[in-house]
Amino acid sequence: MSASTTSTSGRPIGALLRRAEAADADAIGDIWIAAFGATYAFPAAHTEEQIREWIGHHLLNETETWVAEEDGADIIGFLSLTDDMLDQLYVRPGSTGHGIGGRLVTLAKTRRPRGLDLYTFAVNVGARRFYERHGFVAIAFGDGSGNEERQPDVRYRWTPEP
Q: Model pTM greater than 0.85?
């Protein structure tokens, strides 16, 4: 699934999307940690070491994970899917706004054509707008008691049109 296309802003998208491999764990960890830190004023619930261990032992082994490579070199984003959830979607800070996230969401919809749910933190207004632009609808609002960061969250659902 590769192609160099053009985003809605007219900027080129030169990323290759491919299944993640064990060797990608460090790059995925770097993106997760950098994106979380750049987005939220509150800390992650786990240390960087725990996050990296979780990526290497759980995420890459128990989810369907894809990466976006910039011109076949650096990994700039990733997506993880479970049976019915878009579990993780992160793009490296500085690489957002170029259509990578949109391509990853399109891939998720292709891989889960019956529909998908996802969670995002309520304070992440940018992510909420992004998912809503991509057809996800807010279906539940949580008070933070259901996540490790104890932050209010929003559950979204995408259902394909008949």
A: yes
Domain boundaries, the chain: 5-158
CB atoms within 10 A of CB 13: 16
Query: CB 20: neighbour CB atoms within 10 A?
Result: 21
| Type of residue found at 46 | H
Q: 106-151: per-residue pLDDT in tens?
A: 999 999 999 999 999 999 999 999 999 999 999 999 999 999 999 9
Give the DSSP per-residue string, the chain: -B--EE-TTS-EE-EEEEE--GGGHHHHHHHHHHHHHHH-SSPPSS-HHHHHHHIIIIIHHHSEEEEEEETTTEEEEEEEE-SSBEEEEEE-TTSTTSSHHHHHHHHHHHH-TT-EEEEEETT-HHHHHHHHHTT-EEEEEE-STTSTT---EEEEEE----
Is 29:35 a contact under the CB 8 Å cutoff? no
Cα dist. 143→113, 140, 148, 152 in Å?
Answer: 30, 10, 12, 4
- The CATH label, of 3.40.640.10, 3.40.50.720, 3.40.50.620, 3.40.630.30, for the domain at 5-158 is 3.40.630.30
